[in-house]
Amino acid sequence: MSAYWNSYPNFAHNPTTPLRQEFKRLAAHEGWEVGGSRYKKEWERCGRDEFSHQFGSEDSQLSGWQAMCVLVRVEDVPDSITQCRKVLRNDFWVNIYDLLDAKRTGRPVKKHPSAVALSKYTRNTKKIFPKRSAKANRFLKVLLVTLS
After folding, report:
1. Record's PANTHER family (predicted)?
2. How far is CA 48 from the centre of its chain?
3. CA-to-CA distance for 122 and 127, rounded, in angstroms?
4. Quick check: 95 and 119 in contact, CB under 8 A?
C-alpha cells in the first residue's frame, strides 16, 4: 500500500478500485469539500504517491520503465531506459490516471491513436494529472501531452 493510503489508518483502502473512485470515497470519509483546496491538494498528492508506489520513484531503475511498457502492451519491451522512454513518448498515448487504474484493477489501459486524441479524451474526462507533479518526475514527464 502506498504511503498516501497509510496516512489514513482509519480508512479501509481498497487497492483494486479505480483511483478516482477510491479517492472520492476517502474525501467523503474525511469530510473534504469536493473542489475545495484540501481536496485538490490531497488529490495531487494521492496521484503522485500512487504513481511512485506502482512504478517506483527511482527513474534510473529499468524495472519501472519496463513495467510501464508492459502495462501499455509494448510487444517487444526494450532492455534500456532510453529505448523505453522513446517507445513510451513516441508510440503510445495513455492517460496517467488510466495507467494507474490499469495497474490497480488489472484491466487493460486505454490507448489512444494520437497525442491529439489523448488530449481531447483527457479534457473531456477531466482526468488531468497536475502538470507540476508530472514535470518533477521523469516517469511521468514522458507521458505528458499538450492539452489542446
Report:
1. C3H1-TYPE DOMAIN-CONTAINING PROTEIN
2. 8
3. 5
4. no
CA 107, 45, 133, 61 torsion: positive or negative? negative
Nearest 5°: CA angle at 101, between 113 and 45?
110
Q: pTM value?
A: 0.88
pLDDT for res 142: 83
Q: With beta carbons less than 8 A apart as the criterion, state whether 147 and 122 touch.
A: yes
* 16 pLDDT above the threshold of 90: yes
Do the Cβ atoms of 71 and 102 come closer than 8 Å? yes
8 pLDDT band, cuts 50/70/90, is very high
DSSP state at residue 21: H
Alpha helices in 2-130 (DSSP H): 3-6, 19-30, 37-55, 62-71, 81-90, 96-105, 115-125
| Averaged pLDDT score across all residues of the chain | 91
Q: Minimal CA–CA distance to 121: which of 131, 130, 108, 110?
A: 110
- Could you give phi then psi for residue 94, rounded to 5 degrees? -135, 150
